[in-house]
Structure formats: C-alpha cells, structure tokens
Fold Short-chain dehydrogenase.
Amino acid sequence: MSANHRPREGRPAIFVTGAASGIGRACAELFARRGWFVGVYDVDTDGAQAIAATLGKDNAVAGAIDVSDADAWQRALAEFWVHSGERLDVLFNNAGILAPGSFEAVPLARHEAMLAVNVKGIINGCHCAFHYLQRSPGSRVINMASATAIYGQPELVTYSATKFAVRGFTEGLDLEWSKFGIRVSDIWPSFVKTRMAASFAQIASARALGIRLDPEDVAAAVWACAVAKPRFHKTHWTVGLQASLLAFATRIAPSALSRQVVRYLAR
Ligand SMILES: NC(=O)c1ccc[n+]([C@@H]2O[C@H](COP(=O)([O-])OP(=O)(O)OC[C@H]3O[C@@H](n4cnc5c(N)ncnc54)[C@H](O)[C@@H]3O)[C@@H](O)[C@H]2O)c1
C-alpha cells in the first residue's frame, strides 16, 4: 500500500484526494517540487502509487481512498500522519466526478454518485481530519468547488448543485473553525483540460467558453491559497478570467440578467 519510510522532519505536508489524475496530480507534483511531503490518495490505487513513485519515496506516500467511505478516510489519514512526521498542514479535498447531460437522461444512480463523492466525500474528509488539523498549527482545508458554484448550470445540474454545497459548506466551516485557527477555502476553476474534459463536448457552455485552463493553472491557485498569509485570507479562489468575470458579474448584476447570460452560453 505505501512505501515503508519516514520523511525528513519538519517540512509541511499536504494530503491530496483524487491525486492520480488531472488537478490532483498537478498539485501533488507542484507541492513535492516545492519541498512539501505529499499524500497521494485516490480510488485508483495503482495510479496513486505510480505518481508517488515519480515524486520519490522520501517525498510522498500513496494509498487507496474512496472519499465517500468514512472508514477509508480514517485508515488513510492514520497512515499519512505517521509518514508525514505527524503533520497535516493542508487537506486538499479534490476528488470529484461529473456526469453531464439532460437532467432526466442521466441515470439516478449517477446523480447519487456525484452527491456521494463531491459532497459526502468532503464532509467525511473534514470530519475525519479535524483531529489531525487541530494538531497542526496554522493548518488549512482547501475544497475543490468549481465555477459552476457561481450560477446553476444546465446539463450539469446536479454537479453544479454539489459545488454549491461545497461553497456553502466551506463558508460555514471557515467561520466555525476560525476559533481553532484552521482556515477553510475553496477553489472555483472554469473548464480545465483533464480526463474529466472528455465529457465536455456534450456541454453547450463548455463549447461556448472553450477549455482554457491546464491542471497546472489550478495547482498554482491551490499553492497560492495554501501559502497565503493569514491576514490575506480569502474564502473563495476563482481560477481563470471566465470564472472571475462570472463571479463579478453575478455580484453586481440582477439575478435575471445572470440567468440570461448563463442561458445564452448554454444555448
Ligand atoms: N476539469 C474541470 O474542468 C474542472 C473544473 C472545475 C472543477 N473541477 C474539479 O476538480 C476536481 C478534480 O477533477 P479533474 O478535472 O482533475 O478530473 P480527473 O477525472 O482528471 O481526476 C479526478 C480524480 O478523482 C479520483 N476519484 C474519483 N472518484 C473518487 C473517489 N470516490 N475517491 C477518491 N478519488 C476519486 C479519480 O480516480 C481521478 O484520479 C474535481 O472535484 C472536479 O469536480 C474540475
């Protein structure tokens, strides 16, 4: 399951879910390059092991996790804690799935799976990690939301709803856990060139906006969020011009106008 080793003492450590691919992988690579110890966890165990091997056995530990399973979280975090030298500076709840298409055409089981991974997975992660975060001074949680948390998206209705849930969860927990010194943020990228993007051809707004971000662009935002000074704390981090413009527009425009813009993009 994991390499039998201990890392150097005293360096920061990040636990990344969905780290075998796309954004999670890019983050694991970036943080390892910058001297952090990285937990590479994914339901794709072989993929996670392969990424960890490229990072080097002193820089990473890999293992299996299905984020919708609280017992799997307990096992993975306990293993990571030992290998990281008893640090959990950043919990990056990144794993997510997407089933595009007309709401009624997507099988109910796939709607439920998005809830289980995208929402329950993050609730599990924060609940199980609390004890470790509390023992890591200055720790933070970074949750993967999406630009679909800005305005509900046709052909991505449930996915978008799960990301709204991440947004609300992040805002509330950020306030609640400030008394422990644990900051909680989320990341809102627009469309990104990852394995997930294979299904974007079916989504009219993705065709209209294009897929302009690389996983490395999102990893750079996660890094900026992870190392931001406490006095510059920001709860929501947009990634890409499109997400920034949409977030700004929905703040200043009447909701009827936002609805028309999203409707136009999804035409
Ligand atoms: N690609 C985009 O356009 C985009 C945009 C905004 C947000 N996001 C979000 O970014 C995150 C990462 O997506 P990505 O684009 O890198 O996709 P990806 O498909 O390349 O990677 C997702 C990873 O999550 C893993 N995973 C899936 N279910 C899991 C589970 N139950 N437990 C643990 N791991 C699981 C997969 O094995 C995979 O390695 C997701 O939360 C996604 O919603 C993606």
Summary: Strands lie at 13-17, 37-42, 60-64, 90-93, 140-144, 183-189, 236-239. The two ends are 47 Å apart (CA to CA). Residues 108-134 form the longest helix (27 residues).
